[in-house]
Amino acid sequence: MKGGIVAVLAVFAIVLLTVQPGQAVTCGQVDAALVPCVSYLTGHGDSPSPACCAGVKAVKGMAQTTADKRASCACVKAAANRYADLKDSAAQSLPTKCGVQMDIPVSRTVDCDKIN
């Protein structure tokens, strides 16, 4: 029950942080959306949590324009570089495990200027 409440609160926070039309995506929004994924991405779980997947979906929803996709990509890349123990295989599989088709790779080495 406690885990369910935490997941609901995390999703609620993500909804509040979702970008409104005409506003630019910020790293604070992307980071807040993806923080529930840190455990999975650093190898401390076999699958991403529901709150993590809600965050992945929120990031996808934030990044509608090319500029927003590139900004989100830069934020994801910066966040990935903050975690030395980030597992590249977990990062690459995250969107698929959450059932989300992403235009933004979760990678430390992606060239965000090539995102369309």
From TrEMBL:
GO BP term, example: lipid transport
Xref: InterPro entries: Bifun_inhib/LTP/seed_sf, Bifunc_inhib/LTP/seed_store, Plant_nsLTP
SUPFAM superfamilies cross-referenced by the UniProt entry: Bifunctional inhibitor/lipid-transfer protein/seed storage 2S albumin
Source domain of life: Eukaryota
Record GO terms (molecular function): lipid binding
Endpoints of the signal sequence: 1-24
Bifunctional inhibitor/plant lipid transfer protein/seed storage helical domain location: 27-112
Keywords: Lipid-binding, Signal, Transport
Function field: Plant non-specific lipid-transfer proteins transfer phospholipids as well as galactolipids across membranes. May play a role in wax or cutin deposition in the cell walls of expanding epidermal cells and certain secretory tissues.
Family, as annotated: Belongs to the plant LTP family.
PANTHER family: NON-SPECIFIC LIPID-TRANSFER PROTEIN 2-RELATED
Protein name: Non-specific lipid-transfer protein
Lineage: Eukaryota, Viridiplantae, Streptophyta, Embryophyta, Tracheophyta
